[in-house]
Structure formats: structure tokens, C-alpha cells
Structure to design on (94 residues):
């Protein structure tokens, strides 16, 4: 396939990771979502990034919820133990 055509259809890894970050804040266009999903089906590095990003988002939501219940600030503060747990989760994610 012609490189120009391919580049217009497929997103780069950088564009996919940026889209994955934006998706939590704003709705992506149907075209961007389709391009991102197409890229994710073919790119194992971006698949891994998405899985790790999803894990991290979930952990941070839980921690923020805990800290809000305790009347703490809306900035998530993680203990060294929690940081180590997250690092191990990321290392073990395949």
C-alpha cells in the first residue's frame, strides 16, 4: 500500500498514546477511535501501554477515592509501598 495512504489511515504510536490519554478527558471522533483500534490490533507495544495505562488509571481512581473519604487533598499521594506495588504490576503485565 502506498505510504501516504497508509499514513492517512493509520495512527503512529505517538498519536495512539496521546489519544489514549485524551480519551479520559474528551470523546474521540469515530474516525480517530477506529484508527486507534486498528493500530492497537497490530501493535503489541501500544497494546502493552494501554493495559498498563488502564491499570494505573484504576489504581489512581481507587487511591483518590480513599483519600477523598479521609478528607485529604484531591492530589493523589502514593506511599512508597504502593509505588513499588504499581511498578511490580507493570513489570508483570504482558
Amino acid at each position: 500500500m502506498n505510504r501516504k495512504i497508509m499514513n492517512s489511515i493509520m495512527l503512529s504510536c505517538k498519536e495512539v498514546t496521546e489519544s489514549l490519554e485524551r480519551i479520559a478527558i474528551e470523546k474521540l471522533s469515530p474516525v480517530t477511535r477506529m484508527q486507534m483500534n486498528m493500530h492497537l490490533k497490530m501493535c503489541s507495544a501500544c497494546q502493552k501501554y494501554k493495559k498498563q495505562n488502564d491499570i494505573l488509571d484504576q489504581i489512581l481512581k481507587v487511591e483518590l477515592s480513599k483519600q477523598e473519604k479521609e478528607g485529604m487533598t484531591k492530589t493523589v499521594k502514593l506511599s512508597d509501598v504502593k509505588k513499588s506495588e504499581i511498578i511490580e504490576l507493570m513489570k508483570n503485565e504482558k
Q: What stands out?
A: The mean pLDDT is 84. Residues 51-94 form one domain. DSSP finds five helices and no strands in the chain. The two ends are 31 Å apart (CA to CA).
